[in-house]
Structure formats: structure tokens, C-alpha cells
Amino acid sequence: MTATLVKEAGSPPAGPPARVRHTRRRGRIIALLFAFPALLLLGALVVYPVLFSIGRSFFDASGTRFVGGENYGEMFRDPATLKAVRNTAVWVVVAPTLLTGLGLVLAVLVEKVRWATAFKLLLFMPMAVSFLAAGIIFRLAYDENPDKGVLNAAVVSVHDAFKGTSAYPTARARDGQGLTAGKDGSYTASASPGDVMALGLVGVPPQDLPGDAGPASAAAGRKAAPDELRGVVYLDFTPGGGGEQGVVDRGESGLPGIKVEAVRDGTTVESATTASDGSFRLPDLESGAYTVRLPASNFAQPYDGVSWLGPALVTPAIIGAYLWIWTGFAMVLIGAGLSALPRDALEAARMDGANEWQIFRRITVPLLAPVLTVVFVTLVINVMKVFDLVYIIAPGPVQEDATVLATQMWLVSFGGGNNQGLGSALGVLLLLLVVPAMVFNVRRFRRSQR
């Protein structure tokens, strides 16, 4: 009997009853049935396209001839593709860094204001705008014409407030009427003290004349002292027709605000600005010959602003649009992490005499490091796939200067290249670049869940 008890005590535990095993198997089957539609969609929309693109990348443009790794070699020999890789690298380095830093600063500042909810709503609102709509908005905002582009309108206003602008950008002298055009855009004429000059210009629409412009005929009849030069700069055009070229006729208007210089031996001796009737006076001149000059600044074209969408600035301009859209996302995520920080550590640092900058740098940022990493990696994944903003904002002539891997893949495949083999190779390259960041994000998320 003792042997029997020992044998029973040393035997392994009996397995689960058959009914329990059946119930578990049935639960797995039911779970699989519920997951099957999602798995089917995942396979049709993700797995199959990925496998098809990998296979297609080994064939030529027509898809009939196997070329092996030729498309991958061509990809790194093509200057446009290399530029797309460089631009993508700029995006990956600049955009996530700026967004994470900006989101961190805003999240910390928002905690200190009363209207934090309204501020967060305002910054998060661009996330509700599609990339297509945002691209159109910023394409208009970056327009080089100050009458259309709000950014250039602001730049031109600030420039003109400090430097001023010419009132007569279209003015020019008539040929053979005494004024000689210089290479720099100025006009000159020869004179001596005691002369009275009539310097006629054309090309100024009467409606564009300054409001204080007056008739020039009275100024043309004034006499000059022996040591001065007098004259009038006028619009050599009689409204309604008639009049004589080179002569100040009644009804012809003076051109106020034009700078006039007396030049001798290459040096400006005297200068003046025309009055409302176009008259000017250059006094205290020694005897001899002078050159009377209307400087080119009188006729300079108005400042048109910055070429935001030119080859040099198109990528930073598009990154600026991306920042406008995604700043709210970064701020909200970092703000959620900030609200979970242990307040006792912050209060203890304040009680120990630490200022806000020291608390931010040595306590807040280190404690937020996991959240900042997740935000940064998420944005890296996102910017690698950016397409809409680049394609919409960049004008056709500079599309190649702004291209990234996603746009280059589309252009090569469907935008005129018609080479789906090379486009598939670009897609595989983009996948290989994105997957490590996605794996890192998933692993970090699982680690934080534990």
C-alpha cells in the first residue's frame, strides 16, 4: 500500500479534461474567424502590394524582362534620385528635430497659461486640414507676387518701411531729348551754372502720379542765378493729346520726389529733390561744366520680396508648411507626458533653489526622454513618406529641386517616367528606411506597457 501511495504521489498531474481542451480550441477558432476579415484586408492592402513591389523591382519598365538588381543600381546612378535621397535626409534631420523641440517648449509654456485648452485647440486645428488643402494654402501664401502671397506682402511692407521704394519704376527718357541713358539705369545731361533745364520723362501713367504733383509750366519759366542750376523734371505728356515733345506745355505735370545730382569729375557736388511741381535747384556751384544726373534709384523696380519657392528655399518653405500642420500633434503628445511627471520632484527642486531653466534642463527633459523619443521616431517615419506637400507646393520648374523619395517614386512610375520597375525599387528603398524606425517604435511601446 505504501508503494502504491508513493507511486501515485510521484506521477505527473493529469492533463485538462477533453471538454476544456475542446472549449479552448473552439475559442481560438472563433477568435480567428473574427480576425479573418482584418487579416484579409491587411494581406490585400499591405502584404500583397509589398511582395508585388519587391518582385516588380527586378523587372524592366515593361515588366516582361528580368533585370535582377539593375534597377537598384540605376537608382543610385540617377542624379534626380540622389537629390531625392539628400532632400529626404534633410527632412529626416530637420523636421522631426524642430517639431519635437517646438512641441516641448509649447507644452511647457502652455502649462503656465490660463487659456491652455484654447491654445492647444488652436495649434492642433491644422491637423484637421488635409495635406492637399494645406499645400494649396501655402502655395498661395508663398506666392512671389506681393499682391497674392501674404508672406511677400509682409516682407515688402517691412522693406519699404525702412528703405523706401521708387515712385517711378516705369519712367524713361525720350530718345533725342537731351537725356542720355547710363548702363546703371540713370539718366544724365550736361549743363553749366546759370542754366535752366527741362528734363522730360515718359512712361508714367497719369493715374500713377503722386497726389501732390502740380503743373510744371510755371517752374520751367524761372531764371537761375549765375552760381546755380535750376530746372524741372516733368511728364512730357499732355492729357488729351497735343503738345510738343521736349517742351513743357500747359497741362503737363511735374514729377515730385525725384533726386537730382550735380556731378563733376565723378564726384557728386550738390543734390536736390524735386518739389511738387517737379522743380529743383542746385546752388553754390563753381563755374564750369557739370553733369546733371537722375540716379537709377529714381527708377528702380519695386522690391518684390523673397523667392520662397525658388530652388534655394523651396525645401525649407515646404518644411515650414509641415511644421504648421504637425506642431499641435507634437505639443499634445508631449503635454500628455508632461502631465504624468511626478510633481514632487519638481517642487523639491524649486525648494532647493533651482530656477525654471535648471528644472527644465535637468529634470523635465530627462523625465520626458521616453515620450520625446516616441514623438521623434513617429515624426521620422512620417516625414520619410511625405508626398502631398512637396508635390503641391513646389512649382513645376523646381519640382526636381524639392523632390523626396515618395515624390520621386511617383514621378518615375506615373509622372512621365513610366518605369514601374525603377519606381518599385524606390518603393522598396523607402520601405527599408521606414521599417527600422517602425520596429524601434513598436518595441519601445511594448517596453513602456510592461
Q: CATH H level of the largest domain: which superfamily?
A: MetI-like
Kindly name the structural category: alpha+beta
Instruction: Encode the helix/strand succession as letters.
Output: HHHHHHHEEEEHEEEEEHHHHHHHH
Helix fraction?
40-55%
The CATH topology of the largest domain is MetI-like fold
Strand content: 5-15%
Number of extended strands:
9
The number of helical runs is: 16
Rounded to an integer, what's the Rg over CA atoms?
A: 38 Å
Provide the spatial order of strands within the biggest beta sheet. Answer: 2-3-9-6-7
Distance between the termini: 51 Å
- Largest sheet entry: 5 strands, antiparallel
Name of the top-level CATH class of the largest domain: Mainly Alpha
State mean pLDDT (0 to 100 scale).
Answer: 85
- Identify the overall geometry: elongated
List keywords for this structure.
alpha+beta, MetI-like fold, 2 domains, four-stranded mixed β-sheet, 52% helix, disordered N terminus
What would you say this structure looks like, in words?
It is a single chain. The relative contact order is 0.13. Helix 2 packs antiparallel against helix 16 and helix 10 runs antiparallel to helix 11. The chain contains 16 helices and 9 strands. The protein is of the alpha+beta class. A hairpin with a 2-residue loop joins strand 6 and strand 7. The chain has 2 domains: 226 residues, MetI-like (MetI-like fold), CATH 1.10.3720.10; 128 residues, no CATH class. The longest helix has 39 residues.
Write the SSE topology.
Elements lengths: L1 H9 L7 H39 L13 H6 L3 H32 L5 H9 L6 H11 L8 H14 L8 E2 L6 E2 L5 E5 L4 E7 L14 H4 L8 E7 L23 E6 L2 E7 L5 E4 L7 E5 L19 H26 L3 H9 L4 H12 L1 H16 L3 H6 L5 H4 L2 H9 L6 H30 L1
Parallel strand pairs: 4-5
Antiparallel strand pairs: 1-4, 2-3, 3-9, 5-8, 6-7, 6-9
